[in-house]
Design goal:
Layout: E1 13-17, E2 20-24, H1 28-37, E3 42-47, H2 49-57, H3 59-67, E4 70-73, H4 76-84, H5 94-106, E5 113-118, H6 123-134, E6 139-144, H7 150-163, E7 167-171, H8 176-184, E8 192-195, H9 199-203, H10 212-216, H11 220-227, H12 232-235, H13 237-251
Parallel strand pairs: 3-4, 3-8, 5-6, 5-7, 7-8
Antiparallel strand pairs: 1-2
The structure holds uridine-5'-diphosphate.
Length: 253
């Protein structure tokens, strides 16, 4: 891969969503590969309002968000919060960011080694096959499902240590994937680690993304609720977040 087309700052610009950081980078995949070329590993968090509300009640998760190397605006609620505070920021859905990162990595001969960890048995394999077919220069160095015993987990960590992938996608759901990355990133200190939630299920064709109309209307959450009604309790975080965002705008807290 050639050098980045423009100078990019080593430390990304930052705004706050409540007391949590959100980074503003024009081209996050390009920025991440630039960091990697300099030997810096990265933990990427794709932030949405559920995660913010989780951080509000969970000190460990709050600290994790503050320590993440790159926090990108995944959810519409986060964009709404920033709008209320006079900032217009483009939403970057986590799955689209991950796809862009895979494409950019596949253009490189040195940063194209990828590992897929998570989801039900067979899903990560399917993801690997599909991406390998789409991006022949991508090197999928390994896969592992997200449901296994302690022995497989120990073996997984040894494999990661040996393989040293450039990019490790972890699809265990929030917050398990973020905690897992926090606990294991030292195993591959120069890797880009990304928690991708349900993206493997979508890439493998097990689930569908919301149609474009829903996405454009910021109603992706509604489509998800329709597909997975059991999520209703988790989704109560969304109106709570919206209310809190409004109060913070009106009363500055
Ligand atoms: N998952 C997993 N191991 C677990 C629990 C969940 O691999 O112990 C996977 C699950 O199969 C799914 C993903 O994690 O592929 C979570 O997807 P979800 O859409 O719930 O992600 P979130 O909304 O939390 O980002």
């Amino acid at each position: 891969m050639g050098q980045p087309s423009r100078v990019m700052p080593a430390v990304p610009a930052k705004v706050s969503v409540f007391s949590y950081p959100l980074h503003l980078v024009d081209n996050a995949p390009e920025w991440l590969l630039m960091q990697q070329r300099s030997g810096r590993g990265q933990h990427v968090v794709t932030l949405n309002s559920e995660m913010v509300m989780l951080a509000e009640r969970t000190p460990r998760f709050a600290e994790l968000l503050r320590q993440a190397d790159l926090v990108i605006p995944d959810g519409s609620g986060v964009i709404l919060y920033l709008k209320l505070h006079g900032l217009s920021v483009k939403r970057q859905p986590g799955i689209e960011f991950a796809e862009a990162l895979l494409k950019l990595a596949s253009e490189s001969d040195h940063h194209n080694r990828v590992f897929f960890y998570g989801a039900a048995p067979g899903v990560a394999e399917m993801v690997a096959i599909r991406w390998q077919a789409k991006l022949p220069n991508l090197k999928v160095v390994g896969v592992e499902s997200g449901y296994h015993d302690a022995n497989t987990e120990a073996e997984l960590i040894r494999r990661l240590e040996r393989l040293q992938p450039n990019i490790i996608f972890v699809a265990l759901g929030v917050p398990r994937q973020e905690y897992w990355i926090q606990d294991h990133r030292h195993v591959c200190p120069t890797a880009i680690w990304v928690g991708v939630g349900g993206s493997f299920d979508i890439w493998a064709g097990q689930k569908q993304r919301a149609p474009k109309l829903f996405r454009n209307l910021h109603l992706e959450w509604l489509y998800r609720l329709y597909q997975e009604p059991w999520r209703w309790r988790r989704m109560l975080a969304l109106p709570q977040f919206a209310w809190k965002a409004l109060v913070s705008r009106l009363y500055g807290r």
